[in-house]
Amino acid sequence: MGGFIAVVRAEAVRTKGSAAASLPWIGLIVAGISFAGILITPQSQERAALLWQTLYVTGMAAPVMVLLASQVVARETNARAGGTAWRASSSRMVALGRFMVLAALSALFHALAFWLVIPLSLAVGAPTDVSRIMWAGAACWIATLGVLFLGFVVSDRFGTIAAFLAACAWQVIGVLAAESASWVMLPPTWAVRAMLPVLGAHQNAEPITAGEPLLTESPFLALALGLLLAVTSVVVTVFGPAKTRGDRAGDNRPTGRRSTQPGALRAVSAVMRGRAVLPLCAVAIVLSIVTAAVYPNTYLLGLHTYTLLPLSACIVAVLTWQSLAPGWRLLVIRPFNTPAAVRWWVLLCISGITTTVLLSAIANALRRGEGTVDALIAIARSGALWFVLGEAGTLAALWVTVRFGAGWTLGGSVILCVVGVTLGGDVLAASGLWIVAPTAWPLSADTPGRFAVAVSFGVVIAVIAWIGCGRAMITAARRGG
User: Fold this and answer.
1) In the predicted structure, residue 464 carries a pLDDT above the cut 90
2) What span, in angstroms and rounded, lies between the C-alpha atoms of 390 and 352?
3) How many other CB atoms are found less than 10 A from the CB of residue 392?
4) For residue 246, what pLDDT is reported?
5) Distance of alpha carbon 212 from its chain centroid, rounded?
């Protein structure tokens, strides 16, 4: 027992100051937005107290938990496990201690996101169901343990980006099927289903009306299934085949392969050959073309605005820097402006996707006989904002990745996507809240005044991010990547 306590204590020391230790503080943002909702909606303060927690459960829980787990995996990969692979330490004991610390970090996040609302709500005299909020926070922690631990297993095997994309798909499946008759057979639904009766909301975050069976359904079956998933993940990791030293090695492909070609942009392009950036861009392009061929333009515009563009900007920036970082000090000493070339590279990637979507939207409108002047002007307005905001978002994502790490970039993109979908709808987008959801601006900035504001903000952010990226990459070279 004493040995296990020492392992947990050592894991806590290694976690201190890492990206994984910082991510739980995102809970402050969730609680803060809920508190703002309490202040601005006096007619429905009790619902506002848990509204954003409901949006977290239905839109962000799986990606955020997987990001938390993947940051621990990335830390150990970068640090080569701190030398423990060559010491007389039990890898199974270390893994079990890591799960314990991960569970504690998740508990901190949920305590901040849920329980902090209680003193804030009481401070302004709003009606506060203390016991319900306390139970919601505890239940959400239990419900998401399975996703957290499974995310650790997937990140350890396949990497951060693969785990993040899988978590996004997991979240979508879980929300869409949470109220289906077969939810018990679908693991992605377990965490969402457990929280619906606790939060008193449907899968679309609308309140459950009195008399509906879901309101009185017990969450304990779904919670038990979530715990079963967590236990299974722990057993597979702790009692599965132990890793060898060779298994702990990271990506050993030569970073500078064929990078002796003249020109910084050509050097960066050579490094990126065989990496995942271009294949993922191709997938995004194919998805856009297929969507335009099958569905009306409203589907394509919504897909690119709310999901494809912000996620593509984030993933392109993260994957590019992860590919360049191991050999960055060698690339940056070349007699060219390599930091500028990196920025142009990511902008070319995101612009290629946006160009395809814009041309597909125009062709789709003409093919369906909807190519009126007003419709084409609306598409052109959205296209202009896609380019401006896409470049601004990609540069901002690159700066955050270089400066703070991939976890913050991926977590921020999830939050922005959820805020964009929530505040970019027909009702809220018509109010002054449209300004809070920049990812929705290509659709919500539909007047000359809003368009001017969106373009101005986008250009300013792009310029600031361009400068910040350059400085961050120079600093990264000085500190060794």
Assistant:
1) yes
2) 11
3) 22
4) 43
5) 33
Give me the mean pLDDT over the 344-361 stretch. Answer: 93
Residues 6 or more apart in contact with residue 342 via CB below 8 angstroms: 268, 320, 321, 324, 398, 469, 473
Retrieve residue 393's tokens: 């978002």
Higher pLDDT, 95 or 228: 228
Distance CA 214, CA 13 (A): 43
Q: Give the residue among 101, 113, 100 at the shortest CA–CA distance from 64.
A: 113
Residue 104 has a CB neighbour count (10 Å cut-off) of: 15
Please tell me the distance from the alpha carbon of residue 190 to that of residue 229, in angstroms, as a whole number: 9
| Closest CA relative to residue 146, chosen from 46, 221, 25, 62 | 62
| pTM over cut 0.70 | yes
For residues 435 and 456, what is the distance between their CA atoms, to the nearest angstrom?
12
**Cβ 190 vs Cβ 221: under 8 Å:** no
Question: Using alpha carbons only, how large is the chain's radius of gyration in Å?
Answer: 23
Q: What average pLDDT does range 209-213 have in this prediction?
A: 85
pLDDT-based confidence at 256, cuts 50/70/90?
A: very low
Tokens of 181: 């008759």
Q: Which residue(s) pair with 201 in the sheet? A: 207
Among 179-188, 242-251, 305-314, where is mean pLDDT lowest?
Answer: 242-251
Would you say the C-alpha torsion 464, 468, 469, 474 has a positive or negative sign? positive
* Cα(151)–Cα(145) distance, integer angstroms: 10
Please provide the DSSP assignment of 209-246 as one string. PTT-GGGG--SHHHHHHHHHHHHHHHHHHHSSPPPPTG
- Percent pLDDT > 90 in the chain is 32
- Say yes or no to pLDDT of 428 above 80: no
Which pLDDT score, from 0 to 100, does residue 261 have?
53
3-class SS shares of the chain: helix, strand, coil, % to 5: 80, 0, 20
pLDDT of residue 168: 84
Beta bridge partners of 207: 201
Beta strand residue intervals within 38-186, DSSP E: none
Distance CA 357, CA 372 (A): 19
For residues 420, 424, 430, 432, the Cα torsion angle rounded to the nearest 10 degrees is 0
Residue 268 in tokens: 């960066």
Examine the pLDDT at 53 and tell me if it is beyond 60.
yes
Q: What is the mean pLDDT of the chain?
A: 83
3-state secondary structure of 43: helix
**Per-residue pLDDT at 298:** 87
Dihedral sign, Cα of residue 101, residue 107, residue 112, residue 113: positive
**Tokens 């921020």 — which residue?**
412
